[in-house]
Write a structure and sequence with these properties.
By secondary structure, the chain is of the alpha+beta class. The protein contains 4 helices and 7 strands; from the N terminus they run αβαββαβαβββ. Helices cover 21% and strands 26% of the residues. A 5-stranded mixed β-sheet has the order 1-4-7-6-5, covered by helices on one side. A hairpin with a 4-residue loop joins strand 5 and strand 6. The chain starts with 25 loop residues before the first helix and ends in a 10-residue tail after the last strand.
Length: 170
């Protein structure tokens, strides 16, 4: 049995940030709206347990970690290459049936890094997403827009304003 061990963040090699590359319509390419990162944000009631599982048990490398007012905590773990899988109800039910034996798949929020959050927000709304919140500057220096996208996906489009590509969340 293989046991993962926790390596202090200062002793870890910082992994390269990977990009999600998608082809997009030329009408969108007039702006810097191409996807740069896929970030799946998981709300964990048992934060420490979830962190321990994904970081220590599965070995996902810690890229960033932040703490804020009121006990707010977030840790961003590297997940390697990211893709966006779009599946209809029949496919989701089939996968759940094969892997679990019954329907269990919940909904989630997807965060996508873009070069221009305002232009990407406009393109998303033009493409059928319903705006939830306009692009808003965050305390961690990103511009984030919230939308309800087709497929029942609650979506954040975020733009790094500091130019470093690092943020406390999306």
């Amino acid at each position: 049995m293989c046991h993962a061990r926790h390596i202090h963040p200062s002793r870890r090699a910082r992994p390269k940030r990977l990009s999600l590359r998608l082809w997009y319509l030329s009408s969108v390419s007039d702006h810097d709206t191409g996807i740069r990162q896929l970030r799946l944000v998981v709300h964990a009631e048992d934060y420490e347990g979830a962190l321990r599982f994904f970081r220590d048990v599965l070995g996902m490398p810690e890229e960033e970690a932040y703490a804020g007012d009121g006990g707010a905590q977030v840790t961003i773990l590297g997940a390697g290459r990211a893709t966006l899988e779009i599946a209809n109800t029949a496919q989701v039910e089939m996968i759940d049936d094969v892997e679990v034996g019954r329907r269990v798949a919940p909904h989630f929020r997807v965060a996508l890094e873009v070069g221009d959050a305002s232009a990407a927000n406009d393109a998303a709304v033009g493409g059928g997403a319903e705006p939830v919140a306009p692009p808003t500057r965050t305390p961690w220096d990103s511009l984030n827009a919230r939308l309800d996208a087709p497929g029942g996906v609650h979506l954040t489009l975020f733009q790094e304003l500091g130019g470093s590509g690092d943020d406390a969340g999306s």
